[in-house]
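Morning F.,

Quick status update on the modeling queue. The single chain you submitted on Monday has been processed. Sequence for confirmation:
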Amino acid sequence: MATIEHEPWEGPNYKEGGINGQRIAIVLHSHHGDNDANDYTLKTISDVISGRERYKDLNLIRDYFGFQDSADFWNRVVFFNYLPDCVGPDEQRYKYGTPDQIKRAKERFLRLLAKYRPQKVFVFSYQMWTQLPESREQGPSNKHGEIPGDGFWWCTYPADGQIATAFRLEHPDRAPKEPQTQAVRKILAIPVLR
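Structure tokens below.
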């Protein structure tokens, strides 16, 4: 049986300006469901854009960035889940992932950063943050360093000749909307590392 790996969503306006002239990647933990397939993420975001489906967490993320129209937002970003395939059926949606999934996720994460070359990566999962691959540098941005801010945990990765800065944010299911919106605004205002 072939291994499933969800293909990331790349919006058609991602490379031509993205959001505020920045290439942005959105990363959540995982999909869940019974009918796993390589195009699971593509179908999910297509359904959100068309209005066939409404997912609270995806709509909240859109709102954090100041967008009301799903197509306008999702067509500007790259989106993928950290786990490369479904964590399990719907009743297992809160599972963490198997050791094999985590191993594959680490390899895939670095591969996707190199392929899509995002400048900023919004990781909406405290739990997943601890399982990211080893980074170039990391820290909370309220310490002395290149990245100003309000105590965001961040780390950097090489991304095919440039630097991708990843920021840790709470999952939308567990975060009050206004503080999360303010955090996204502050992160967007941080200069892109070169």
